[in-house]
Recover the amino acids of this structure.
């Protein structure tokens, strides 16, 4: 059973190799073009530009469960949100907002000064999430997605500042964060 108040029942921490099977499960439930476990392992263990995060739910009996994930690439002063998803049973509880705030904060600390992503034109939920952080439409990639040739909208947050992150996470409650920078941590938003 999912507790009603999420605020004190979730942590955001760096993704580990042990998380990958569960991350892949969430990916398959969330996207028509999921990544392979191998791709995730590469991002976590080998890609020096990647920053990978999970949201972990803490149940009342102390059992924990990964319920959300995010992978970013930070190259020079640009942060590319590669993938972000929350398990369907845990959506609309502020988890993506919290993950995004953490990922952007970590990117800022690594030198990123702008953030961008591609999102399906039909994905209004994700677009709304990103707009809450100040992301704006900056371009269109026609017929970008391989499964149905849907357009991708390019959304950009420029500049990326601590203030923009604060504004975006304002309504997210008081989740706990753990860990520092993702070991190295994926463009599903781009798939
Ligand atoms: C998009 C997604 C990550 C949002 O996760 P979530 O944890 O449910 O989002 P949150 O609860 O943190 O919501 C934050 C904001 O996003 C927007 N939002 C989220 N889901 C929404 C929905 N179904 N309809 C409209 N707006 C939505 C709202 O602005 C929301 O703020 P509010 O609750 O104050 O109204 C989740 O729906 C998901 O995993 N979707 C499939 C994968 C995906 O599309 N990833 C993004 C690829 S670019």
């Amino acid at each position: 059973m999912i507790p009603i108040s999420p605020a004190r029942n979730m942590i955001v921490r760096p993704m580990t190799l042990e998380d990958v099977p569960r991350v892949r499960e969430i990916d398959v439930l969330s996207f028509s073009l999921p990544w392979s476990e191998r791709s995730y392992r590469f991002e976590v263990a080998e890609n020096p530009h990647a920053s990978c995060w999970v949201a972990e739910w803490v149940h009342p009996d102390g059992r924990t469960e990964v319920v959300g994930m995010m992978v970013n690439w930070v190259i020079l002063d640009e942060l590319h949100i590669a993938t972000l998803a929350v398990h369907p049973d845990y959506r609309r509880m502020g988890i993506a907002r919290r993950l995004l705030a953490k990922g952007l904060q970590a990117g800022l600390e690594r030198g990123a000064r702008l953030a961008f992503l591609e999102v399906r034109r039909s994905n209004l939920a994700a677009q709304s999430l990103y707009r809450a952080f100040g992301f704006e439409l900056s371009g269109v990639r026609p017929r970008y997605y391989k499964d149905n040739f849907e357009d991708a909208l390019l959304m950009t947050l420029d500049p990326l500042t601590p203030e923009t992150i604060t504004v975006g996470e304002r309504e997210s409650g008081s989740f706990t964060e753990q860990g520092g920078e993702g070991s190295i941590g994926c463009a599903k938003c781009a798939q």
